[in-house]
Amino acid sequence: MSMQRVESMVAEQARDLMARTGATLVMAGTKTTGGKDTGQPAVVVAVPKKVPLHELPPEAVVPPRLMGPGGSVPTDVVTMPRPTARPRRNCPEVRDLGCDRAIARHRPLVGGISMFHARWPWCAEAAGTLGAVVRDAGDGRLVGLTKNHCLGLAYHPSYGRPWFGENDPSRVVVHQPAVPDTGHPERDRIGVAKRMAPLAFAEATRLDHPNGVPDEGFAVWPFPDVVVKFPAAPANTVDGGLIALDAGVEAAWGMLDITAGPLPFATRAEVVRGMPIYKAGRTTGRVPPALGTILSTSAASTISYGDVYSRLPGWEQDAVPRFVETLAAVFTGQMVFAAGASGGVTNQPGDSGSVVLGLIGGQFKIIGLYFAGAGTGYGLFTPIWTVADALQIEAYTSVRAPAGAGPRWFFGVACQVTGNAPPAISQGAVEAAGEAAPPVTVEPLPTGAAVFPVRHRADVMQVVAEDNRLTHGAAVIRLGVWPPVPGYKRHAACLTFEDLPIPAGVEVTAAALELTVSPQALHDRRLFNPQQDITLTLQASALGDASRPRNFDDWNAVPGTTAAVAWSLPRDAAPGQVLTSPDLTDVVQEALSHPHWNPGSSLTLHCLDQTPLTPEEPALAASLLCCGLGVDALPEQAPRLHLAWRTVDASFEFVQLCLNAPAALPVLDATGKPVTRYGDVAVDTAALPVPALRFDGSGDYLSVPQSDAFYPDAEFTVEAWLQFDTVPASGASQTWCGVRNSGGAYTPWQLQLVNGKAQFLVANASNTNFSVLGSSVLAPNTLYHLAGVFTGTHLALYVNGVREGIVSFSGAPRTLVSPLGIGRAGDNASRYFSGLLVALRITKGVTRYAGSAITPAPYPFPEA
Questions:
Q1: Among candidate residues 528, 549, 369, 544, the one with its CA nearest the CA of residue 459
Q2: CA–CA–CA angle 350, 353, 359 (5° rounding)
């Protein structure tokens, strides 16, 4: 009896055999007798538990031999649990096997590291593995290879429609490392899903069933029709997906802690039963010295994709804390491996997506894609040739590109690829995916008022107490807790508004939280569960990136504001209704006044349930279903924080001139000093995000009458946001602010452009000029913050927050002899400025900037 004949029999009869007998796995293997492997080829049938034959119906009995067109084949029955395929958030206690390394941030990307998608609901607690970097055979781009169920679970719409499935890859954002591990939701994004092999499910839970869903607390579920079966669902061959890497994300050959070299795909003839295999995964890291050995190169199995979940929106009314989801798919054409004696760890949740390696001819090659297993006993993987055919990929082993594919990036240097001629590259080389990232542009500070939506990120939205972790869905603000949990602080929700570009010291003039009640109840029959109105208390906290909470305990450790606002939510809110909180000015002001607040910090609103408990309802459990909390929701549907504020200058009493470009003429100074316009100085509202004053370099300037306010006889700071039309490299100079008499002999002080560099000059009473010249040549059509600082003993010059020079000063500063000129050399008709002036500020009596690096004041400058 040949193994090839057994493999044919598995391919022909495995699915029918699983359906009749309840087998979890059918594979081509060898028969075991008395605990010893006889070496006789046989169809091995794995069942969860062996049952005496007299207790089984005849059709459920595995016959001793299977009959087929080519004759009969012996069978063998073994005990194995049903394999499962699901990601995992928490890292099991196998850190000695490499978990800490795998969940770290890796650039360039390599195989065997933590990743996951930002798609509700699994994204709140799950993580998977980026298996390897491969090449899309269609467009030649580098892509990440992982599992379908690590990318949101694309499904065949005719056979099972899981409520969390995602058939639009562009909506699946991928991070490395996974956000629940150590990842950051913005900085660690690596791309989006490119394509996924859809899965056809043989059975799935009907989450819209009127009687609820199966629960682990019931021995027998009384509503069998809650699970729908799809007998016509075709067998699956691949659980796989690709990640389209963002521009500028670097990717490399190799596998974490196994090899730094290229990983070619193995051929079918190179993979045989009994060969040792290797794997590096997010949870187990590398399993040394080998993962195990191949038991079978031809197997079929029913894979469980279901999980045990905490209660989700609207199910609290059933008084059942958790439910078991049924979701299963049949796979054929798979390979099976068993743990080696030295390995001991095979299937740990989170390792899904790992590629399986074989050491063939002294070189590691990819032989398959791991996706399911059962504990530490055995696991399943898909042959790489099947994966390559389904996803249209090829091994990334040499730098080459199809004709006309455009530029590629090697070592950060652009190289134009022509035809299929590969440029030389060493084994450890790094290739960047896509084109170079665009340059960073300077944006003005939003002023006056703005609306900030909750960032679509699962780990900032909701906390549930009973499992001491974040929820899956984050599509509901959950209030109260069922059953009561000692010490529960009754956090209902924590809504985080990230990266607010609001400077410290602003004065909040209005603030309110706005929620839209969802018109889609997500299989729930009510929007509210309680029999009374909900009472919330809203507090706030300021969060930096380093202190970003990741679980329930972390949230409770974050100090909230002393200020608080009560908010009563009606029980009968209608779908689509917008709920607006009372004014939160005091709450938000306290958070923004925190000493650690900086532009780009995060503001979190804590919604605490204060609904009075009654004897009839001693432990109220309530839910408010809101739009826009899922990662796929539109920003305009998300909870919104409406803020109005004004920027306040703590040193405004020392400001002698504050001139922000107006939206229309005339030009006004915030301190009340008269400003006279000469030439055709005009307002330009198109060149920059905010209005600017345009000077053409020929007769255009502003003048402010001579004043003691402009004497540099104390600490003195003059700063401006401006942009040059031209920057002469040598010879001609431009002055954008300063005092100089018409004769040109005396220059008390001025800021100017000399030989393409910024210069700050102050003269003493003995007519000695002291000047500091910048080190960088300024570029035309580029917005700069330039600041000259005079302390009485030193002059310093800052360009975009970097101190480019500092010199000593001696003597007393020279007194003024002419008006302040803006756009030319004081009262001297020369050195006209050509460009855009956004804002100009002169401060006397305090030194605004000190040190080698500073944060420039945002523009426009505060006028109070």
A1: 549
A2: 115
